Amino acid sequence: MLSVGDGGEFQQALHGALRSHHVPFRAHAMADLAAWTDAEVKGMAAVMCGYTDPPRMTALARLLANHPVFADARFEYASGLDAEHVVFRSLDEYGDTWFVSPVLLESPSPYDLYEESLTKFEQKCGLRDYLDLYQWLKTVVENDIPGDVAEFGSYKGHSGYLIARTLGALGSAKRLYMFDTFESFPVEPLGVDHFWSETHEVDFEDVRTKLAPFSNVQLVKGDFTETLASTATGPLALAYIDCDSYRATRFLFDALLPDGISAGGLLICEDYGHPALLGNRAAVHESLDGRPGLLRFFSQFSGLYITVKLT
Ligand SMILES: C[S@@+](CC[C@H](N)C(=O)[O-])C[C@H]1O[C@@H](n2cnc3c(N)ncnc32)[C@H](O)[C@@H]1O
Fold first, then answer.
1. N or C: which end of the chain has fewer CB within 10 A?
2. 121 alpha carbon to ligand 1 midpoint, in Å?
3. Residue 38 has pLDDT above 90, yes or no
4. pLDDT band at 178 (very low <50, low <70, confident <90, very high)
C-alpha cells in the first residue's frame, strides 16, 4: 500500500489502521511520485490519499490519472470538509433564512412535478439539483438557445424523466437524448474511478416503459464514449452530465467543446460538489481552467457546476 500525504492527523490515523490490520505500507509526499517508474510501483495494491483538503486531493487525483505507471492503481480517499464547514457556518449571516425563489411563481409548480416523479422513480435526482436544473432549462427555452438537450448518465431515469416533464411543462419541442449503458457502470480502468465499476445495475425495459410516454425522448444505450459519435444530436442547448467518473467527464468536455454546444448553451455537471466524486472535479478543472469564452458558476445550493458557452 502507498500512503500519500503530509504526515498530518488523518494520515497518522490511516497508518494506525493499516498497522492494526498488518497491512504493509510506504508513506510519501505527492511531490515524490512524479518521476516514479514501474520499478518503484511494483507489487503495490493501492494508493491511499492522506490529504483531506480539496486542493491537494484534487491535485493528487490529477497527477495519478495522468501518470504513466499510477493511472491504473486503485486510488482510495476520504474527503474531510469539516474545516470548510466550520468556517462557512461562522461567517454565514443567514443561518436558516429562506429566500423567495422564482420557482414559486411557476405553474405547474416544480415542487408538484418533483413530487409526481417520486411516485414513479426511486429518488436519485435530489430536489436541490432539480430546482436549479429547472431554472436552467427555463432559461434555455425562453432564450431560444438552439439545439436539443442531452443527459449523460441516466441510471434508472429519474432526472431524465424530470427533464422531459419540465420541457413539456415549458411548452418546448426540444428532444432529450438520454445516454447510459442502461446495464451497469462501465468497467473503469483508472484508479480514481475503479470502485464504480459494475455498480449501478439497471433494468433497461423498466426505464424504457417509464419514458415511453414522451415522444421527444431517445434512449441511447451503451458506453457514451462509443455511442456519442454515431448519435446525431447536433450542437446541444444543454448537456446535463451526471456520469461520476474522471474518464467519462474528460471525454465529454473534449467531445462537446467547442462545437457540440450551441452559443449560449450549457454544460451542467451534477457531480462536482459531491465530496466522493474527486475524479469528476479533477476532470472539470483539467478541461475548463484557462479555456476562454466560458462563464462558470458553482451553485452552493445544489452542488451543480454550471458552464455557459458564451459564443
Ligand atoms: C449517478 S448515475 C445517474 C443518475 C441519474 N442522472 C439520476 O439522477 O436519476 C450515473 C450513471 O452514469 C452511467 N455512466 C457512467 N459512465 C458512463 C459511460 N461512459 N457511458 C454510459 N453510461 C455511463 C452509470 O452507468 C450510471 O447509470
1. C
2. 15
3. no
4. very high
